[in-house]
Amino acid sequence: MEGLVPQGDEYRTGPGGISLCARALPSLSFYRTMAAIVFRASSLAKRSRYKTKEWAHSSLDIARALESVGVKISVTGVDHFRNLEGPCVFIANHMSTLETFVLPAIIAPIKDVTFVVKQSLVDYPVFRHVMRSRDPVTVGRTNPRDDLRAVLEGGAGRLGAGRSMIIFPQTTRALDFDPGMFNTIGIKLAKKAGAPVVPIALKTDAWGNGKHLKDFGRIDPSKKVHFAFGEPLLIKDRGTEEHARIIEFIARKLEEWNG
Length: 259
Hints:
The chain is of the alpha/beta class. It has a single domain (about 70-259), classed as Glycerol-3-phosphate (1)-acyltransferase, CATH 3.40.1130. The protein has nine helices and eight strands. Strands 1-2-8-7-3-6-4-5 form an eight-stranded mixed sheet, sandwiched between helices. α2 (about 25-45) packs antiparallel against α3 (about 50-70).
C-alpha cells in the first residue's frame, strides 16, 4: 500500500515545479483538486468500495495536491511506530483540518487506524460517507462524561480488534499549544486497552481556518508543514508521567519549528 513515507524514518518534500496558476492562486488551485479527490472518495464509500487502501491513496493525493501548490511537508520518527508490534494510540495536538486529511497517508499503509472525531464530521455533506466508512469513534463535545465513555468503550474495542486510534485531546483546533487544554482521554484509553501511546507533534497552519467555513481556510505555502512521531510510551499507574512527556514532546517540537 503506497504511503507518504513508503520506507525509512522520514520524508521531506522534494524540489518540483509549481505552475503559475498555483503560485498566484494556491488556495483555489488546491481546493479545486481537493474537491475532486473527496467526491471520488465519497462515491466509492457510498458503494462500500472505500477501504483502507483507498483511504490511504486519497490521503496521499491530498498531500500531493498541497505540495503541488508549494506547501512543503516534513515527517520524522516513522520508525517509532513502523517497528511497533500491535495497535497503539496516537495522541496529537490539533492545529488545522490538514492533519485529518494527511495523517492517513502516513499511518494507514503501516497500521490499520481510525480517528476519534466530532459527530459533526460524520454528518458533514459528501465527506460523511468517507468518515463513516472508516468506523471512527464519535464524540459530541457537549458532555465530557459521555465522550469519555464513548472513547473508552469504542476505542478499546477497536484496539482489541487490532486497529490503532488517532486522538486529539484538545477540545478544539488551536494555533497555540495550551497544555491546560490537552486532556488525558488518550492516556485513559491506552491504559484501559493495554496499548502503547505514540505522541505526534504537528504544525499544520499552512491550511488556515476559514471565516465562514472553519474547515476550509486559506492555503499558505510559505508555512512549512511538520509531523514528528515520538517514542512509544507504555502507560504506568495513572499515566501522569506519560502525559507530561507527551506535552513536553509536542511543546519542544513546536518551539523548534517556530524558532
